[in-house]
Amino acid sequence: MIAALLANVLYSGGFVLEKRALGALPEVDFRRPARLLRLVLGSPLWIGGSLALAAGFAAQLAVYRTLPIAAAQGIFVSGLVLLVLLSSRLLGERTTSRERYALAAILLALLMVVLSLREGADTVSRSAPAPLVLTVCLPSLALGVWLYGRAERRSREPRRAPPSGVAYGVAVGLLYGVSSLAVKGVSSRLTTHDPTGAAVGLLRSPYPYLLLFTGAFGLVMSQAALQRCRASLIVPVCTTVSCLFTAVLGTLTFGEALPQDPVRLTLRLAGTVLAVAVLLAMPQQDAVPYTPLGAKELTPP
What we know:
The protein is mainly alpha-helical. The protein is 74% helix and 0% strand.
């Protein structure tokens, strides 16, 4: 539980730092990844944000070794509250009444998921068939890349309103959902009893290669999208899609049983469903045109 909350803090802080750094950089383009990496690696603030995200990844590994996938996702969604608060304070992004209602729903969902947990009573799976993992992950990766490319093409069409960021969030969320399943798979193979055998088994599994793909494409796609859209909009959409993907398909793929107790089962399912409803509560577009932080400094007088 503590590791899950720590991962939330690290992820939220990392996204906000990266967003603030991107606001001071020239426009990045996911079709030019080498230039994008050169720009962001030259920003100490962005590097600090990426290190926070990396530490959040390490905390996530610990969470998946101790909590079922569905329960972990319910807690991870609570990080949206901190993300929106930090975006408001540090990035000057205003929250609407609709977004504030969504925050209240997230807090309620977190409480329901926490109440459904009972130490030693839930099954934490350690493995999943590789063919099943690939059957779930490969089409999802293809769909995410296609959705992102479609959003990019539509944004460049003349006389079309700028994209709201929801399409970007859904696309990146699918990649991060696959990444979460890969993290779960890696965590299940970490052991201190036979490190050599564990390393060989890990390299024979699809998990490290899924992490490499989602890490490379997710980095480029998320930075370009984060620069163009509000962090308080795109990150909640991305996180909600990722959590929904991981909670539903991850639970089925790894064969984790739901609680047998009717009350705990109701709390677990209702909390997860309520957390997913955050996606529907988020606005599909900004009420006013969004001006990225730092745009004034980049515009010649």
